[in-house]
Amino acid sequence: MSNTQIYGLEDLLVVMGRLRDPDTGCPWDKKQDLQSIVPSTLEEIYELIDAIEREDYPHLKEELGDLLFQVVFYSQLGKEQGDFNFEQVVDGLVQKLLRRHPHVFPKGFIESVPESKLLDEQQIKKNWELIKAQERKAKSQSGLLADIPVALPALIRAGKLQKRAASVDFDWDGIHGVWTKLKEEIAELEEAIELEDVDQQEQELGDLLFACVNLARHLEKDPEKCLRRSNRKFESRFRFIEEQLVEQGVAIEKAGIDLMDQLWQQAKNKE
Fold first, then answer.
1. Where would a tag sit more exposed on the chain, N or C end, judged by fewer CB atoms within 10 A?
2. Which pLDDT does position 249 carry in this prediction?
3. Distances in Å between the alpha carbon of 167 and those of 141, 170, 171?
4. Is the residue at 244 inside a domain?
5. What is residue 68's predicted lDDT score, i.e. its pLDDT?
6. Which long-range contacts (CB under 8 A, 24 or more apart) does 107-115 make?
């Protein structure tokens, strides 16, 4: 018999409490802590992104639920440690949204409405950075880059570092300067390779990747999204090679680069 009851957020919080119950809870859930569930959180985020990029909207609902569970899980752990609870998480978020959107909530509370039309996007971005600077000051974070998490994926963090520096006009005038820098980094990497300088190769390769992120930013593209798209394209083409080799009765280990490259071109042409 199917359950037709519609559960709400309060039910989810009750379920989370039951899962962590010392006596009757789930053995796996009971042994988790703030550090141990981080890998699960990252996995859920990437599964959510994957569903969005594949436009798998029915599955997206499930992935959003999984991500919400992560927030509830962290909140339960915080409550048990006496640090914070879910209600405080929500309260802090609402306060921050009100504070960071004075163009929507001019008096700082939910019911307030702007008396004139909204600011344009550039003005909003400028105000956003000013508000963020005030928040950093309140947290005794003096540097402009101080609140950019070190644990972010490197491509994402590079973009945030560049964007923050650009907010005070430390940036290229346009894409041509970025393009010149990119060519410069390629040349420096080539030199490091010729010199067989392993440490310098690593540094120059990092600089090249950083310049690529800069190029993506000036093109208003998300480098992570661009790379995920290239990953999917590579995977699709390589899968085509494998399928064709199976049809031809050729083991992939014995196919050779010439045949695989020929099949690769066929996969490209199919696209």
1. N
2. 96
3. 17, 7, 8
4. yes
5. 97
6. none
Three-state SS string over the chain comes to CCCCCCCCHHHHHHHHHHHCCCCCCCHHHHCCCCCCCHHHHHHHHHHHHHHHHCCCHHHHHHHHHHHHHHHHHHHHHHHHHCCCCHHHHHHHHHHHHHHHCCCCCCCCCCCCCCCCCCCCHHHHHHHHHHHHHHHHHHCCCCCCCCCCCCCCCHHHHHHHHHHHHHCCCCCCCCHHHHHHHHHHHHHHHHHHHHCCCHHHHHHHHHHHHHHHHHHHHHCCCCHHHHHHHHHHHHHHHHHHHHHHHHHHCCCHHHHHHHHHHHHHHHHHHHC
Domain endpoint, select from 84, 103, 118:
84
Report pTM.
Answer: 0.68
* Domain assignment of residue 233, yes or no: yes
The pLDDT of residue 2 is above 70: no
Query: Are residues 31 and 72 both part of a single domain?
Result: yes
Total of domains in the chain: 3
Residues 172 and 215 in one domain: yes
Stretch 78-106: mean pLDDT: 94
Q: Are residues 17 and 78 in the same domain?
A: yes
What is the predicted pLDDT for the residue at 258?
Answer: 96
> What CA–CA distance (Å, rounded) separates 242 from 173?
46
Residue 236's domain spans which residues?
225-270
Residue owning tokens 């504070």 = 99
pLDDT (0 to 100) of residue 128 = 78
Q: What is the CATH number of the domain that holds 50?
A: 1.10.287.1080
CB atoms within 10 A of CB 173: 8
Q: How much is the CA Rg of the chain, to the nearest whole Å? A: 25
Q: What is the mean pLDDT of the chain?
A: 92
Q: How many CB atoms lie within 10 A of CB 89?
A: 16
